[in-house]
Specification:
Blueprint lengths: L1 H4 L16 E2 L16 E3 L2 H12 L7 E9 L4 H14 L5 E6 L2 E6 L8 E5 L5 H10 L10 E9 L2 E9 L5 H18 L14 H11 L4 H10 L23 E7 L4 H11 L4 H17 L3 E9 L14 E9 L6 H16 L6 H8 L14 E6 L11 E5 L10 E6 L7 E7 L5 H20 L29 H7 L4 E7 L7 E6 L7 H11 L9 E4 L28 H8 L1
Parallel strand pairs: 6-7, 12-14, 17-18
Antiparallel strand pairs: 1-6, 2-5, 3-8, 3-13, 4-5, 7-8, 9-15, 10-11, 14-15, 16-17
Length: about 575
């Protein structure tokens, strides 16, 4: 809102595409009959949220949906342009513009679909990533009905990268499956072949938006239930970045990954099958355990993706049908992973029973409770399982997925079990650099990976017994060698805001811990002590955690315990006349 008031919100402009020849006519002038008044349909609640964020600006390409495939073999650009234009004609949401009437947004279907231009650029592989990145980042003009565009990079006579870029207001992940399948059939027809499927009349998104709008008044009871489920919930307290990122409009996204043992996914599936849980629920439980370790909080909320798709009437629908489901779980009492899995499964089932209630209505009902005291959104952390990506499989060609990471982050932190390549599973986190720094993100993904590995072997481990990730390969070990990897030191050094730590274990009393923070702002000694009480066995918890500016060290490097505050000094034996006099006195 501050950016909008200052006049810095991005307007609805459309940058020029990558230069090069094109196939198909870019028909931006009105056609006969195109100026006829179109029916104004209310936006779905998900579209409304997307439209508002687009109007305020600052989302960058966070809500662009790129879909790229490396196509090897004979590829007919003209036939592809014909197929894409036919796809837009079949699905009105791809030729819908967004306007305002009496202060309310609405969607109007353009009565005559324009020919979708397919721009072709000759380039080598070295230049391709930058061209693809620039194309996916180009803004959309939603007021003009611009929701899809196409770019083909030609690397050789039979080697192309085909990029389709959609706006999220018109498609979701499930829509891409329909788009890829129908484009293959339409392309086959355009090349004179016989398609595998005969395409039936497509369901239209405007009908879904109307149904949802008519049902809004009937959500009162379920909104009350959501209010009960989320009463007094707080956003997860992620460790703030040591150095704040520059205040830019776009929330810069970054990704960190850790490879998993190839047998882990099957072990997690077996674990889920034994406890009536899906692989998604098992991975979500691991995300809760990892977030608990990162924040120290027992009452946590993680968002998961729901869908409004149900029944055969919505099969083959292209449009935005996703819904965010906040899942709230109590992690107190150091439960075993199996017990926590039951808690997460129950909470997830409860949320899914109300998945058709739009998330923004839930936020409206919660009011101020939808955000923390500092304005942080309630759902700032999400979790998902990433399966094999969709690719465009055209007849007579081979298809290879092309990964196009977004420059913007939708959430502060997202955990992912990445199974895109079944032979090389990975633990993954995507994060917003304004909310989390690289060190904390690296700790988060390593903890998540360590948890997945550990519970695959022994799901009865309790949360406080689950192993923490060891030091990253090639990274310095911050712990004190003289402490012999004391569990207190391991736990403190695993905290993303702790730079150094040591522990002293006297013979006649409890241990005392000392910690050095990365920055002057961070957790207090009492908060760190609370973290140790939640993660360590009672006999290992020190009496106190004292914060220092730096650990005193000997010339050889280990911490000098004699110079720690509160420790008795061990001076050299007295010598000299004055020392003898003092000793005698």
């Amino acid at each position: 809102l501050r950016r909008a008031r200052a006049g810095t919100a991005r307007g609805a402009t459309t940058a020029e595409p990558a230069t090069g020849p094109s196939t198909g006519r870019d028909d931006r002038t009105p056609r006969p009959g195109s100026d006829r008044p179109a029916e104004c349909v209310p936006l779905s609640r998900a579209q409304r949220r997307m439209w508002l964020m687009e109007r305020l600006g600052g989302t960058g390409d966070s809500y662009h949906v790129p879909f790229a495939t490396r196509v090897r073999g004979p590829f007919d650009v003209a036939a592809f342009a014909t197929a894409l234009t036919s796809l837009v004609a079949r699905h009105a949401i791809l030729r819908t513009r967004y306007t305002e009437h009496d202060g309310e947004p609405c969607q109007e279907v353009l009565p005559t679909p324009r020919t979708v231009p397919v721009h072709v650029v000759d380039t080598d592989e070295a230049q391709a990533p930058e061209l693809l990145r620039r194309e996916t980042a180009r803004p959309f003009d939603l007021a003009a009905g611009d929701a899809v565009r196409a770019l083909v990079l030609r690397h050789g006579p039979q080697d192309h990268t085909v990029l389709l870029t959609f706006h999220h207001i018109a498609v979701d992940g499930a829509s891409l499956e329909t788009v890829a399948g129908e484009l293959a059939d339409l392309y086959t027809t355009a090349t004179g072949g016989t398609p595998r499927h005969t395409l039936a009349a497509a369901p239209q998104y405007a009908d879904h938006a109307r149904r949802e709008h008519e049902a809004l008044s009937g959500f009162e009871e379920e909104l009350e239930r959501w209010s009960e489920l989320l009463a007094d919930a707080e956003p997860p307290r992620l460790p703030p970045p040591a150095a704040p990122a520059p205040d830019t409009a776009v929330r810069p996204a970054a990704v960190r990954t850790v490879p998993l043992t190839p047998t882990v996914p099957d072990a997690l599936r077996t674990l889920g099958a034994q406890r009536q849980a899906t692989l998604f629920t098992v991975s979500l439980t691991a995300a809760f355990a990892a977030l608990h370790r990162l924040t120290g909080d027992d009452d946590l909320v993680i968002g998961v993706a729901g869908t409004h798709r149900s029944g055969t009437a919505m099969r083959g629908l292209v449009g935005l049908c996703v819904n965010t489901l906040p899942v709230r779980v109590d992690l107190s009492g150091a439960p075993s992973f199996s017990r926590l899995l039951r808690r997460v499964g129950d909470a997830l089932l409860e949320a899914q029973q109300h998945r058709h209630v739009p998330f923004d209505l839930v936020l409206e009902r919660l009011g101020a409770g939808a955000r923390g005291a500092d304005g942080t959104a309630l759902v700032r952390v999400t979790s998902d399982v990433l399966g094999e990506p969709t690719v465009l499989r055209l007849p007579g060609t081979s298809a290879e997925y092309v990964d196009l990471p977004s420059d913007g982050a939708k959430f502060n932190l997202s955990y992912g079990l990445d199974l895109a390549d079944p032979a090389r599973p990975r633990a993954l986190v995507q994060y917003d650099a304004h909310a989390l720094d690289d060190a904390a993100a690296q700790t988060a993904v390593r903890d998540y990976a360590a948890l997945l590995d550990a519970v695959a072997a022994d799901p009865e481990l309790t949360l406080d017994a689950l192993p923490a990730a060891g030091p990253q390969d090639g990274s310095p070990d911050r712990s004190d060698p003289a402490s012999d990897r004391h569990p207190v030191v391991e736990a403190l050094c695993a905290h993303p805001m702790v730079a150094d730590a040591t522990v002293v274990q006297p013979e006649d009393g409890p241990a005392v811990a000392y910690a050095v923070l990365k920055d002057s702002a961070g957790p207090s000694g009492h908060e760190l002590l609370g973290l140790l009480r939640r993660t360590l066995a009672p006999e290992a918890v020190p009496a106190a955690v004292t914060l220092l500016d730096a650990l005193p060290r000997t010339a050889a490097g280990p911490a000098d315990h004699a110079r720690l505050p509160g420790r008795p000094s061990t001076p050299d034996a007295p010598s000299g006349a004055r020392a003898r006099a003092v000793t005698e006195a």
